[in-house]
């Protein structure tokens, strides 16, 4: 176990905030990434002007010149966006007709996937490590644990957080983690939005990542895993391959539940029970797997660095932890 782990009984909704950690080794602007062929130098953080981006944490307007251009870009791909109706908020119980309509392949209600979705790693005992909803105050703690253990992860980044914490996003990228789109606002499931709103959510997240890192992401994860064939087609037309997390039945996915510790909806002990359940299920899969975890809150970072990651590293047979993009390149021969 991690000797510096916060005691499990302290990780919960009533926990006081510990001082936010300083980012170790802030990369200098102009640093040229050596791990990517022909990568441009790292942009200066002074070039990121928050007022030039949409309001934080709400669906961006669709009448801006940027979004209007992205709509034209999507149209010019010739990719047909299926005319599937927008869903109502409230998920499957509030959308019984849509939920029963298998032609729309709505992951949320029944777990339908298409060939273009990534939802596991091909090789058994490989964990495609992912953290969602950052960068945020405690992400540096996670980065420092990953560094100490020579681990790389995929980060599903919210645009509204990236514009607020651009230095952390640069540190993730320069640390050779995989950076992926997780929408601008994360304020609504994508199937509840119009085509134009989905384009705005994905486009602004792509843009802030490009502005901060100098490179354009080519994968995405829909907030809440909410995707159907309409959202898929728009994502693919925007050059973004969807990455989900592993599902083991129509109703169960490999979700730690870590997001809900801070609100008190789940205890940290229950998250560790979920983790045991995940490990039990992963051990009988023929493939590797992807688990839902977050770096938005102090509690989820503490449970990851203090318990889940140390446990994963101590498992027999040995688990290989890799960013999703890396695990996909390591197929069994
Ligand atoms: Zn999320």
Automatic annotation (TrEMBL):
Keyword field: Carbohydrate metabolism, Cell membrane, Cell wall, Cell wall biogenesis/degradation, Chitin degradation, Cobalt, Glycoprotein, GPI-anchor, Hydrolase, Lipoprotein, Membrane, Metal-binding, Polysaccharide degradation, Secreted, Signal
SUPFAM superfamilies, A to Z: Glycoside hydrolase/deacetylase
Membrane topology: Lipid-anchor; GPI-anchor
GO molecular function: chitin deacetylase activity; metal ion binding
Keyword Hydrolase tagged: yes
Compositionally biased region (Polar residues): 10-32
Cofactor dependency: Co(2+)
Enzyme class, spelled out: hydrolase
GO cellular component, one term: plasma membrane
Localization per Swiss-Prot or TrEMBL: Cell membrane; Secreted, Cell wall
EC number: 3.5.1.41
Catalytic activity: [(1->4)-N-acetyl-beta-D-glucosaminyl](n) + n H2O = chitosan + n acetate
A GO biological-process term: chitin catabolic process
InterPro entries: Glyco_hydro/deAcase_b/a-brl (IPR011330), NODB_dom (IPR002509), Polysacc_deacetylase_ArnD (IPR050248)
Disordered as annotated region, ranges: 1-37
Iron-sulfur found in the keyword field: no
Main location class: membrane
Ranges of residues in domain NodB homology: 125-322
Family of the protein in this entry: Belongs to the polysaccharide deacetylase family.
Name listed for the protein in its UniProt record: chitin deacetylase
Organism: Thelephora terrestris
Organism ancestry: Eukaryota, Fungi, Dikarya, Basidiomycota, Agaricomycotina
